[in-house]
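User: Fold this; tokens only.

Assistant: Input:
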Amino acid sequence: MKKLPVRKVIRLPHFDYSGAHSYFITVCAYQKACLFSRISGKRNPRVCLTPIGSFVRDQILCISEKYPSVSVDRFIVMPNHVHMILRFLPTDNLSAPSLPDVMRSWKAQTSFYAKRDFGAAPLFQRSYYEHIIRNREDRRQCALYILYNPINWRFAASGRRSGKSRFTGE
């Protein structure tokens, strides 16, 4: 019998993912297909969303509606991935959602409606990358990474890569 590969555990053991923390999240398109947007402009790159990308953006904006204790502080929809900073606000609610709960729900709902409305299936890779934001400087670096991601994408497309991401290693 063929052994299945063992999935790498990306969660920190003993960390409370439902507590008041912030996270830098990266979710990749299935097989890293460029489904969500394109980057146009050489001097001032800008993101031009596809219909699926607009839908993904709208679903990101709905996270705080579904989970009032979760704030989407920053995000960007790139051609084949999405970055977002999610901030979990302090709450007395014992049933407050955890990061895995929010991501599982968001990816499932977004994928379901994208398949129904656009025929796009599967939409995302199985997992997602997370970075626990530890302090103000870390938050600033994550926000700058999101801000400059279209420029970095243009560098990568032109072969003048600006260096590996400290977050994803790409």
